[in-house]
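Reply to dn_fold:

You asked what the input looked like. This is it:
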Amino acid sequence: MNLTAINVSLISTPLKQPFHTHLGTVTERESLIVEAVDTDGNSGFGEGVAFSSPWYTEETIGTSWHVVTEFLIPLLKKNLVSHPKDVSTLFGAIRRNHMAKSAIELALWDLYAKQKHVSLAKLIGGEADKIPSGVVVASKDEAEALEQTAMYVEEGYQRIKVKISPANDYRLLSRIRNAFPDLPIMADANSAYTLNDADRLKALDELGLLMIEQPLAHNDFLEHAKLQKKLATPICLDESINSYEDAVLAAELGSCRIISVKVGKVGGLSEAIRIHDFCRDRGIPVWCGGMIEFGVSRAHNIALASLPGFTIPGDISSSSRFWEEDIIKPEVSVENGWITVPKGPGIGFEVNRTRLEQTTIRSMAFRF
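and this is what came back:
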């Protein structure tokens, strides 16, 4: 791929409003931005989406920085690749650390598409010209959650995801359902329940939810399979799906009926496409999950969600959902519930280098 440099930036900026789950509250978002540069001056960008602390996965922004700069980039310098698909095999020598691997792999996909003068979506087999957009309601206050829902419905979002826990589940969801009888609603539990809560979760069947996302433990498959047999509402696995092998295991055990695919969490675009292809062959609906991302990762999500198996609106909202100013231009926008898939080379968005510099708190450059 004729690499001449990889630049890594650690950026940080506050969210416009706090993002609440029962696991914690995010008010400031850090991220890794990786830039891969070739001999012709083309740049491809990827984003590492680990959080600042290990509340969601064992990876953090600190461990990602360590693995990217001390292991993955040196490994890539010694073993130059000709295609982004080669990276998955090469990085297999490093166990897990999927978010760190993804940051580099995505930058190489963007660069490769630009070298081929084609959009990333088209390069990977995307078919959609526009994708449906969903959004997350994450508030500790029920009245505020209702206000957020009403605002997002007014803005045209096609699906609402509501963060729940045993403290608010049925009461909150029933209030939203009563206010919006025809609205596609899903609930995200972020592992807030155990199998002993099966009857409590079964009570949600009457609300006509699209799905309940990750009700049980983040690393569980067996108990989710037991729970799914008790529920009419489909279970969706998210935190449990960190690889293609996880998706196969979930399908074989019957742990869920829907899978959330997060390109930044499974190790990159190659692995995300494998999961998509498997699920499509098995008739398992997939949708593109979100990680409170900046525009680089959001742009990769748009390309991924243009694949034909993504039949459910994903967590791909406007840049303005989280940021006063994103690091890409134009910023991602939702028009009447839809996001246009860019047709320009690569991810189809330009990195706003001025904004990138403003938000950067640490950087390193590696010459090839």
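The chain has twelve helices and 15 strands.
Hope that clears it up.
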